[in-house]
Specification:
This protein has 78 residues and is mostly helical. It has one domain. The termini are far apart.
């Protein structure tokens, strides 16, 4: 096993266009939050809801309509 800290480092190529795109997406998300626009335009994949800490909130508050995602996931039973 390597014994130098540099052996544990990973390098990723810097691509300005990807960084700019991520920044633009972040700005759009912040704008939606500031405008209190919390509409779900596309229901996430089932695996996303399974891992989400807010899945019970979605089910209880009707943020994502029941039936669009397995009801038991939104109620926190899975």
């Amino acid at each position: 096993m390597p014994d130098t800290p540099s052996a544990f480092l990973m390098e990723f190529p810097y691509r300005p266009e990807i960084v700019d795109e991520a920044g633009l997406h972040f700005d759009q998300v912040v704008e939606q939050i500031l405008n209190k626009n919390y509409d779900i335009k596309k229901v996430p994949e089932l695996k996303v809801c399974k891992e989400c800490d807010l899945r019970v909130y979605c089910g209880r508050e009707g943020v994502i309509r029941l039936g669009e995602v397995d009801d038991s996931i939104l109620s926190g039973q899975r």
